[in-house]
Amino acid sequence: MTTIGLIRHGVTEWNDLGKAQGISDIPINKLGRKQANKIGDRLLDEGKWDVIISSDLSRAIETAQIIGGKINLSISHFDKRIREIDCGEIEGTTEETRQEKWGSNWREANLGMESFESVGKRGIEFLEEIVHTYTGKRILIVSHGALIGLTLQQLLPTMFESTYIDNTSLTLLHNTNGGWDCTLYNCIKHLI
User: Fold this and answer.
1) Contact 80/56 with Cβ under 8 angstroms?
2) For the chain: N or C, fewer Cβ within 10 A?
């Protein structure tokens, strides 16, 4: 069995402001660093991890570095396939700004956003490659809310019709002989 721990990066100023981040390279803030330390402490208490992989965006990298420092693991590699959804023209905007600029049906406009299907597909392709490369290992992946959520919706559609992923939440996936199971979803007990 291969175990994958999916972790969303720590909170950023843009998260707090309700701005779409997408592939904009926004760092985590003071609270985000505190959250990363808390999940690092939790992971240290919950068994040994073999590998940690991060998105190539700085908010995920710093979160992964903090976690790695706690559990004594260096980041194996950075992968752009697990970066956040490309939000096109809406990056850096709030819902209010989007409605002012493009109207209440802005989601239907062609604003250069990556499709949900494409995000989930690259997430699944990445996970399948990781399972093949690290069969039988315990792998932490530090990524982003939409990437994690959309991947889960395509990977296990009957389990996840919709998703919400909190900052520094932990979701556990297990792959046994090519079959996927999720035993923990969006857990933030370390933050409470």
Assistant:
1) yes
2) C
- What is the three-class DSSP state of 66? helix
Q: Cα separation of 146 and 165, whole Å?
A: 8
DSSP lists the bridge partners of residue 138 as 3
The whole-angstrom separation of Cα 78 and Cα 61 is 8
CB atoms closer than 10 angstroms to residue 161: 7
Predicted structure pTM score: 0.96
Structure-token pair, residue 74:
């260096």
Residue bearing tokens 């559609």: 157
Closest by CA position to 71, among listed 42, 34, 28:
42
Q: What are the backbone angles phi and psi of residue 140, rounded to the nearest 5°?
A: -95, 135
The Cα 109–Cα 68 span in angstroms is: 41
Gap between the Cα atoms of 102 and 145, Å rounded: 24
| Count, residues in the chain | 192
Please report the sign of the dihedral spanned by the C-alpha atoms of residue 151, residue 156, residue 161, residue 166: negative
Task: Confirm if 182 and 152 have CB atoms less than 8 A apart.
Answer: yes
* Neighbouring-strand partners of residue 96: none
DSSP 156: S
Q: What is the mean pLDDT of the chain?
A: 96
- Using pLDDT thresholds of 50, 70 and 90, give the confidence band for residue 4: very high
User: pLDDT tens-digit profile of 150-166?
Assistant: 999 999 999 999 999 99
